[in-house]
Specification:
Blueprint lengths: L8 H9 L16 H22 L3 H12 L1 H4 L4 H7 L5 H19 L3 H24 L25 H15 L4 H25 L4 H17 L4 H21 L27 H11 L26 E2 L2 E2 L13 H4 L7
Antiparallel strand pairs: 1-2
Length: 346
């Protein structure tokens, strides 16, 4: 009997990540619905109310001073080392790099630039709105406060609203905004809210922010996330323009010609011209033409004319005479002495 192993949640996550990359046919783009518009209006009213409460030095400012005098970092010193690292989750540089790496992988995987463009848009809005509010209100932080009980506004500070809190809301909240399913969007929204509030309260613990700074920073980041659907048409046009620019750039690039590697010290081989196939008789004629021509005949050796001479006459003679030793007792053939030689009888 064959049994199949039940897939765990982690197995299902990796199975989804290993799917074939494809461009989403129907991306769930959030729209500025009536519900979102109501939330945006309520958050904006809350933002303005916090600013007004600090400007008039209301009970909120007195609460800020009470928390500052309480000095949480002295009440719970054992968690100081941990919170020094936890507050990094609200710093602009590290969080932007981490989230950009994840959204860049999603953009490459799904063949779309929308995740990276939305991250860039949200960070741009964050720098403009929060930066302008910081410089415009000029509030000093707890470590630089001059008068007990005052709101410390307009003194050249840059602490109100909290940039750490607003950055945590936007950076981690953009993951929830770009989630592909409603369930993932709900879980990521809750996670980003808890993380951003934790970062804000950590700055209060460390004494770098007032409590009202954290509340206003949380509202400022939430306003940016709620207003992102208004930038969706501009992001879509920017994505189309970037893809068109990429296609035009690819069309202008020359097509590279493959070059075969040549061993060192050898010249590249000359191109070979191919000839059309010839009939059989043409091939035989070509074969005869390619045979090496016969060697030229040797020049005949002509002997000097004259009668055939005796062997003794052909004996080479040196300038000093014959190489045979002289024999005084021998006579030339055919002479009278040879005829007078006595014959031995038997």
């Amino acid at each position: 009997m064959r049994t199949e192993r039940n897939l765990t949640r982690l197995d299902r996550v990796f199975t989804r990540l290993d799917r074939e990359p494809e461009r989403p046919a129907d991306i769930d783009v959030p729209k500025m619905s009536r519900h979102r518009l109501v939330l945006f209006s309520a958050t904006l009213a809350f933002y303005l109310a916090i600013v007004w409460a600090v400007v008039i030095t209301s009970w909120l400012v007195r609460l800020d001073w009470q928390v500052m005098f309480f000095r949480p970092y002295q009440q719970w010193p054992e968690i100081h080392a941990f919170l020094d690292y936890y507050v990094v989750l609200g710093q602009r540089g590290p969080t932007a790099v981490m989230v950009a790496a994840w959204l860049g992988w999603r953009s490459w995987r799904q063949h779309t630039l929308r995740p990276l463009l939305m991250l860039g848009t949200s960070l741009l809005l964050l720098n403009i709105t929060v930066g302008a509010a910081k410089l415009g209100m000029g509030r000093l932080g707890p470590h630089y406060a001059t008068t007990i009980g005052s709101n410390e506004m307009g003194l050249g500070g840059d602490i109100f609203p909290s940039g750490h809190t607003a950055n945590a809301v936007v950076t981690w909240g953009i993951l929830a905004y770009l989630a592909s399913t409603p369930r993932a969007r709900r879980w990521l929204s809750a996670l980003s809210a808890v993380t951003s509030l934790g970062v804000g309260l950590t700055t209060v613990y460390l004494g770098t922010h007032w409590l009202s700074d954290v509340v206003l920073g949380w509202a400022a980041g939430l306003l940016i996330l709620l207003a992102l659907p208004w930038s969706e048409p501009l992001v879509a046009r920017a994505e189309t323009a970037l893809f068109d620019l990429r296609d035009r750039w690819r069309a202008r690039r020359p097509v590279p010609v493959p070059v075969t590697a040549t061993p060192a010290g050898l010249a590249p081989a000359a191109p070979v011209l191919l000839k059309p196939h010839a009939p059989a008789q043409d091939e035989a004629a070509a074969a005869r033409e390619t045979v090496a021509p016969p060697r030229p005949p040797r020049t005949p050796v002509h002997l000097a004319p004259g009668p055939h001479t005796a062997r003794s006459e052909r004996t080479p003679v040196t300038p000093a005479g014959s190489r045979r030793p002289p024999h005084s007792d021998r006579l030339p053939r055919g002479t009278a002495a040879s005829a007078a030689r006595p014959m031995s009888g038997g």
